[in-house]
């Protein structure tokens, strides 16, 4: 008898896009800054954030690098519904 549990589904493309947007904003990055740091176009970043494009593993890896984290970290944060916040800066 198989007692294994079915795999937990990963985020949908809209959930992942929103999660990436939340992480980007928490780090104080613009779409253009994340695109430059990731080595992809701003149009691709924007399309992913609004859930309009499927995200390839390779592109997710580039975005993760641009965010200063690993793909695994991004997914674990999503699974735990953890968000990060940017530090408060004195103006």
Automatic annotation (TrEMBL):
<protein>
    <submittedName>
        <fullName>Helix-turn-helix protein</fullName>
    </submittedName>
</protein>
<dbReference type="GO" id="GO:0003677">
    <property type="term" value="F:DNA binding"/>
</dbReference>
<feature type="domain" description="HTH cro/C1-type">
    <location>
        <begin position="20"/>
        <end position="74"/>
    </location>
</feature>
<dbReference type="InterPro" id="IPR001387">
    <property type="entry name" value="Cro/C1-type_HTH"/>
</dbReference>
<dbReference type="InterPro" id="IPR010982">
    <property type="entry name" value="Lambda_DNA-bd_dom_sf"/>
</dbReference>
<dbReference type="Pfam" id="PF13560">
    <property type="entry name" value="HTH_31"/>
</dbReference>
């Amino acid at each position: 008898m198989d007692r294994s549990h079915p795999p937990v589904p990963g985020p949908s493309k809209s959930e992942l896009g929103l999660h990436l947007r939340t992480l980007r904003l928490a780090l104080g990055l613009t779409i253009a800054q994340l695109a430059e740091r990731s080595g992809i176009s701003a149009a691709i970043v924007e399309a992913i954030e609004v859930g309009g494009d499927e995200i390839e593993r390779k592109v997710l890896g580039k975005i993760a690098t641009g965010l200063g984290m690993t793909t695994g970290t991004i997914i674990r944060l999503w699974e735990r519904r953890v968000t990060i916040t940017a530090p408060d800066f004195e103006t």
